[in-house]
Structure formats: C-alpha cells, structure tokens
From TrEMBL:
It comes from Trapa natans (Water chestnut). Keywords: Dioxygenase, Flavonoid biosynthesis, Iron, Metal-binding, Oxidoreductase, Vitamin C. The keyword Secreted does not apply. PANTHER family: OXOGLUTARATE/IRON-DEPENDENT DIOXYGENASE (PTHR47991). Belongs to the iron/ascorbate-dependent oxidoreductase family. This is Fe2OG dioxygenase domain-containing protein. Residues 210-309 form the Fe2OG dioxygenase domain. Its cofactor is L-ascorbate. One of its GO terms (biological process) is pigment biosynthetic process. It comes from the Eukaryota. The lineage of its organism: Eukaryota, Viridiplantae, Streptophyta, Embryophyta, Tracheophyta.
Length: 358
C-alpha cells in the first residue's frame, strides 16, 4: 500500500520556521494586493460587506416583507455576499459548534491524522490539506476537516470526529437548523425574482438531494502572512454557503475592482450566493470572487457549510423565466460535476484560474 505523507500546515507553523516554503509564496503579481489583515479590517472608508437583517423575512405585513425583499435582492445582485443577523439560529448552538471544532483542532496532529482523508483515492471526507494541483505546486496556508452533514441518509458518521464528545451532537443539530435557514433564504431569493417561493429549492434538489457539506478551515499563524494566502481567490460553486468564524479577520471580497475586507460582525453568519444560484438566475444574483488572508498573531478558524445540488442528477442552466431576447442565457447547460470540471480547466486569465477551487 502506498501511503502518501501530506505535510500539515499546522506542523510547519509550529516548527518555528521564519520563512515559509516557496510553494506557499504567491506569484509576484498577487503579492502587491496582500496587506496586514488587522489593518485592513480597521479601515472604514470605501464599500463594506452589507448586513441583511432576517427579522422581516417572513413578516405578515406585505409592505414590510416587500421592503426586506427589495434589500435582499439588491445585496444579492450587487454583492452576492452578506452578514446575516437575526438568522434564528441560537447563539448557544453556534458556540457549541465552534467550541467542538476548536477542541478537535486542539488535539495533537497524530490524533487528527486518524481521520485523514485520502484525496488520491477519492476519499475526500476527513482531515486534510490542499494538494498541489498544478505545475507551480502552489499551496494554501490551511488545514481542514470536511464531511457531509445533510441529508441524514447520506452522512457517514464514522468519518465525524469522536472527540470532543459534543462534536457529533452539536454539528447534527446545527446542520438541521441551517437546512431550514437555507429553505427560508432560497424562498425569499425565489420571490425576489418573481418565481414561486419553492422554485430555487426544487431546482437545487430539494430536501432529498441538496447536500450540505461542512468544511472547517484551520489557518495556523503564518510567519510571513504578506506572502501567503489561506485560501486563494475563487468563487464558491455551491448554491449557498454559510460561514461562521472565530472572530479573527481573514475574508476578502473582490468588489468593484478592489479587495474589501469583511468585518467581524458579532452573532452573524456570512452567506455567499454561489455559482449554482448565479447560473439559475442567469447572472441576476452574483457569485463573488473572494479569498482568505492569514496573519502572524492569531489562528483563524472558519466553519463553512456548502449547500450544493447533486453532482450528476440535475442539469444547471438559466431558468427559462430569467432568459429573454434582451437577456440571453449567460451559461451553457452543465451538471454540477461538469461545472466544477469546467472551472478547473479554465485557465484563460489569472482571475478565472483563481476561480477554480472552493
Ligand atoms: Fe469560498
């Protein structure tokens, strides 16, 4: 049996190296835009990631609901990313999910290796680090834990961490409530486009086929954060992505030609519109280019849940209602798997190349 030894970024970081290996150093043209994330987060001038208050999402008052929908539509079209507040997920549950993930990553690396994935054999769930997928050997400054959390019958609980004891309980509960939040948001996004409220949900597979995949991203302290990225620039392939984090800044959004740093908003969940919804809406909703910076002082952890259509069962293409003579279809029909494949091989310009990973 061939055992591939995958270097963990955490071991590299804790070894005390003062300069990072060349595989982690970004290309020259990218370095000019990488600044100190703590300084960037403090800046108040210029555009900021919008906040959407979900309190009025299902208001009985039609005028209040319409006002909410108009704002959601604007933000989903202009930004495709937002801080959700009053999302209805109890803070206490979110704290438990975060504590469980922090405790898991606090285990010695040998313990975590027991859950290692094996990307070369297609076993993608578990503890992992990015493998270089191109000639440059470029790597990202992060380790992660990845597993499917919903629907229940598609889960493999043997892959979920046994330690800490609350991990499975808290994560299961979080997946369940997040699944209903996804329905509420998809309904509102459908209504904003003049569609039946359950339309987008159906188009991405509904309760039975839409998959929720949890990825805990662990970004160790980096001795040369000005040279590396935790996650390179990409757009999410998902329908929606929901993100929690440990209040250490890192996320940047490429908005109107500039990198905008997301502030850390207490008790919020960051939500991205992914490529899947961008395609179905024929570009009316936007899947924004984003990346993650690292820093010297604090470990950053984020919990992303990707809500994805099934890989093969659904052909994704602009909904007929979204296509007119004046607004022809912007995207060809593709399965989700074909869409991912297409992104991986689209290397026509550096920004598109950057869009290949999730
Ligand atoms: Fe992403």
């Amino acid at each position: 049996m061939v055992v591939t030894i995958v270097p963990r970024v955490e071991s590299l970081a804790s070894s005390g190296v003062l300069s990072i290996p060349k595989e982690y150093v970004r290309p020259q043209e990218e370095l000019t835009s990488i600044g100190d994330i703590f300084e960037e987060e403090k800046k108040d001038e210029g555009p900021q990631v919008p906040t959407i208050d979900l309190r009025d999402i299902e208001s009985d008052d039609p005028a209040v609901r319409e006002k909410f929908r108009a704002e959601l539509k604007r933000v989903a079209s202009e930004w495709g990313v937002m801080h959700l507040v009053n999302h209805g997920i109890p803070d206490e549950l979110i704290e438990r999910v975060k504590k469980a993930g922090e405790e898991f990553f606090g285990l010695p690396i040998e313990e975590k290796e027991k859950y290692a994935n094996d990307q070369t054999s297609g076993k993608i769930q578990g503890y992992g680090s990015k493998l270089a997928n191109n000639a440059s050997g470029q790597l990202e400054w992060e380790d992660y834990y990845f597993h499917l959390v919903f629907p229940e019958d598609k889960r493999d609980m043997t892959i979920w961490p046994n330690t800490p004891a609350d991990y499975k309980v808290a994560t299961e509960e979080y997946a369940r409530v997040l699944r209903s939040l996804a329905t509420r948001v998809l309904s509102a996004l459908s209504a904003c486009l003049g569609l039946e409220e359950d339309r987008l949900e159906k188009e991405v597979g509904g309760l039975e086929e839409m998959l929720l995949q949890m990825k805990i991203n662990y970004y160790p302290k980096c001795p040369q954060p000005e040279l590396a990225l935790g996650v390179e620039a990409h757009t999410d392939v998902s329908a929606l992505t929901f993100i929690l984090h440990n209040m250490v800044p890192g996320l940047q959004l490429f908005y109107e030609g500039k990198w905008v740093t997301a502030k850390c908003v207490p008790n919020s969940i960051i939500m991205h519109i992914g490529d899947t919804i961008e395609i179905l809406s024929n570009g009316k909703y936007k899947s924004i280019l984003h990346r993650g910076l690292v820093n010297k002082e604090k470990v950053r952890i984020s919990w992303a849940v990707f809500c994805e259509p099934p890989k093969e069962k659904i052909i994704l293409k602009p909904l007929p209602e979204m296509v007119t003579e004046a607004e022809p279809a912007l995207f060809p029909p593709r399965t989700f798997a074909q869409h991912i494949e297409h992104k991986l091989f689209r290397k026509d310009n550096p920004e598109d190349e950057a869009k290949s990973s999730e």
